[in-house]
Write a structure and sequence with these properties.
Chains A, B: Keywords: Hydrolase. Chains A, B: Belongs to the amidase family. Chains A, B: One of its GO terms (molecular function) is hydrolase activity. 2 copies of one chain form a homodimer. Chain A is an alpha/beta fold and 546 residues long. Chain A is built from 19 helices and 11 strands. Chain A has 2 domains: 278 residues, Amidase signature (AS) enzymes; 210 residues, Alpha-Beta Complex (Amidase signature (AS) enzymes), CATH 3.90.1300. Chain A has an 11-stranded mixed beta sheet with strand order 1-3-2-4-6-5-10-11-9-7-8, with helices on both faces. In chain A, helix 12 packs across helix 16. Chains A and B meet through helix 15 of A and helix 15 of B.
Chain lengths: 546, 546
Amino acid sequence: MPSKVIQDYEEIGAKKRADRDSNLIKEWLIPESKLPKSKDVLKFPEESGYLSEKEIEVTTSSAPKIVNYIAEHKWTSYEVTSAFCHRSQIAQQLCNCLSEIFYKEALSRARELDTYYEQTGKLKGPLHGLPISLKDNINVKNHASTIGMVDFCFNPKGGMKQNSAIAAMLLDMGAVFYCKTNVPVAMMMPETTNHVYGTTTNPCNRLLSPGGSSGGAACQAALRGSCIEIGSDIGGSIRIPSSFTNIYGLRPTYGRYPTYGTRSGLPGLESVHSVNGPLCASLESLEFYMKTLANGDPSQYDPGVAYRPWQQIVLPSVCSFAVLMDDGHIKPTPPITRGLKMVTEALIKHGHKILDWNPAEHDKLQQLISDFFVADGGKHVLKVTEATGEPLYPYMSNYGTSSEISAGKLWDLQSKRSAVCKAFLDRWMSTAKTTGTGHPIDAIIAPVTPMAGSPLDKFGDYVGYTSVFNALDYSVGIIPVSRANKRLDPVDKSFKPRNASEKFIWDNYDPEETEGGSISVQIACRRGEEEKVVALMKMISGYLGK
Amino acid sequence: MPSKVIQDYEEIGAKKRADRDSNLIKEWLIPESKLPKSKDVLKFPEESGYLSEKEIEVTTSSAPKIVNYIAEHKWTSYEVTSAFCHRSQIAQQLCNCLSEIFYKEALSRARELDTYYEQTGKLKGPLHGLPISLKDNINVKNHASTIGMVDFCFNPKGGMKQNSAIAAMLLDMGAVFYCKTNVPVAMMMPETTNHVYGTTTNPCNRLLSPGGSSGGAACQAALRGSCIEIGSDIGGSIRIPSSFTNIYGLRPTYGRYPTYGTRSGLPGLESVHSVNGPLCASLESLEFYMKTLANGDPSQYDPGVAYRPWQQIVLPSVCSFAVLMDDGHIKPTPPITRGLKMVTEALIKHGHKILDWNPAEHDKLQQLISDFFVADGGKHVLKVTEATGEPLYPYMSNYGTSSEISAGKLWDLQSKRSAVCKAFLDRWMSTAKTTGTGHPIDAIIAPVTPMAGSPLDKFGDYVGYTSVFNALDYSVGIIPVSRANKRLDPVDKSFKPRNASEKFIWDNYDPEETEGGSISVQIACRRGEEEKVVALMKMISGYLGK
């Protein structure tokens, strides 16, 4: 057999990148010289004059308004799709947030949906005509799912052969796909960069990372290049980027929303499940997505789902919350602490009860989840990276250094994880004795990361604030609280770091560099409590004047 | 250190057995000479004169009637508990169905509940005063969970230290525990026998096995020594015994009913989940259990559960079913085929639609689940059996001969399982094109095993009719259809077995030996469709005149 011609990994990546760029719409391209130099580009799409008033109106509307307007013949799917494609392309030029671009295919699909509606008077489904943006790992037939890995650029040839369960369901409901969003290598790094598409930056402050792994999704949502982004989360991958870009995000519990048939960096890992969820600039859009998908019965598409329709819930008039100010490993930097205090004060002001949350099990949970990620000794990741010789980023060095464990040892780790989750649950339930409401806490309010958006390459090595809730498989929402402000968030020179990870984060905290970075918090409820999470997100965002 | 004195495993088992027997109530003991010699002993408890009329009335009442009568002060928990303890002891004398016996403790708890109700006018919960029997693996504080393994007889000393999540929940709801039921070694054999308590026999025909692993539970439920038995099912362990003893059983999907903190033969295995569910002589009792537990919010007790209250559902007036007459591996013996035809005819007569089910994925699913059981190379089982030197039964020889696989290989098997489950789901959904109802099938009707109760030691090596639904994690009910009848179910001499497993089953089919054995079917719905399973069990049982 002839020896295989090994192409340079950079060459393959460059070709894929060029393919992507060839799908940009030429008439919409902004000349380099007209692109902004500023760090904060959130207002650029609306203030630069490149979008029409109608395009701005469409792209700043919530998803339920858009589908209603289409149903009421006020807007066509074509004009809605075109507006989002246009704004999406501007987002791409500003922050490099996209992997796959297929605006023309989207416009053609939108036209078909419009025709179908005109001719039959029927809507395809509850998402008829609505553009939805997908994270790169969500397979769309005939498009690549590179997940930031060079070997997947043209493998399989001609793109993926099947739609992911969630893509199939959304299409049946009438959605329009127009792009996929950039991710870190194998979606296993907290910053969105890879050897195919390069680095996605944070539109709040382009010196910062939007985080990862749903960094492209969060970036585009913040710039309103989309009204609904679908991301995924196995260690914080929806929550970290949502928190870094000042938008809403939600990580549901596994088994309610479809996940089957996405491309994974760690395929077959089930000790902790990756889940899909929305990232949205508008909370109304997020709620609409959560409700519409749950009610659509994803169990028809995904063998791992049990159907559980969206429930109407009424919050108690007095809720109670446990607030985590510091997990003992890395104390949040000043802007995050300020955000936690703002939320706590708003809750107290509105008559709710506040306790401290003792993170007794957090260390164990985040260690277990780290062990699960490399239970195969990194083999699944290395098989793909080694196929083209692309090097591992420092963030992923453990995939090159871990040893594979046996199935029996994995069973033991899983037993241990269940026991720690039980201890956590028991402590949660035992708060009933101290909340003063007669019930256990309604949620934990916690930092997402210690930072208000991390400077590029400076995330450090800690995702413990988010990963604990993956190990628990809890339902967790992210709400924006404020923006970092160098005047309000000065360096706390009295703080003495307790370990190297904390020192790294605190040494790198520079109020000037972080200026405008996003301040957000997690609202964590128990398994399957998506309705409650959304209700609390609305309640607290309301208190914050959002 | 002094060398540990190794006791003979038989000696340890004998001591544990004697401990159990010492807890029998002397006044209730039936002299050996008065015990029946017949194969079928189902009627003995009521016809032998050992039970009072009141005891018979109580023990043949459904669970909801019992809790209502206690709430209405018609019966006390004490008299209800005493009646079930008495009948339970008769069941034990007839078929050796129990592991732990603690009637006196139960009577004392019942007395406390009665006093509490008298003094406060309040019920402890929706199960106030109701005796419930537990499978041996469900930990009850201060009682052993041997799971049929000699090393667990006195380990930990003094019994288990914590209640299983389900036991804690049932106690909080007011249930009374009075015994635990016998299981096969590690609950991983299809007949209920072990070196501690010996063999449980089938009350329909004591030459037959009640199956396993919830064989003791099924046996006692059939004799109405309980109104609700809780069993567990990882490959058929609720369904096979229910089917062999002519009672109702239900295997729910994982994640709705509590399972945490039970003793497992394969601890930490999550590629397929063991689940708990009811075995009941009365369908009303079964429905009451399913509804009451779901509504009680088990997520407060079990970290693996998401709360999903019981829904009211209305079945379509015309349902459709796919019937599996033969999975291609082992064709059911004549009584089972007759049962399947009875169900099919009843459904057609009532206007429902019937298709054939093509078991295209069954081979793969049952192979995968077999691989998962020994992914650790049998290490977890062997560690326990080797501690006392108890030998492996032939049914478990693969635990001694399998090789452990790596975590990475386990990931690959899990990926494969998900893909096969997806193919199965897609075929299920695609039946919408052929049912004639406009919807996919409502359920699959299938054999439970090829046999109407297996002669002792002759189960063979195949649990593929049940284990496919464990791999799928579907919600599956068992309903009794009829009893084996040598006149109606003669040997089919024309049948040519297609493989050694099938030859073994068919060679061992002896209508004389199987006389009176139970004929039952599975009603399999998709993930989480417990409400639908129960509704279909009621509908079809009604057609069958049950």
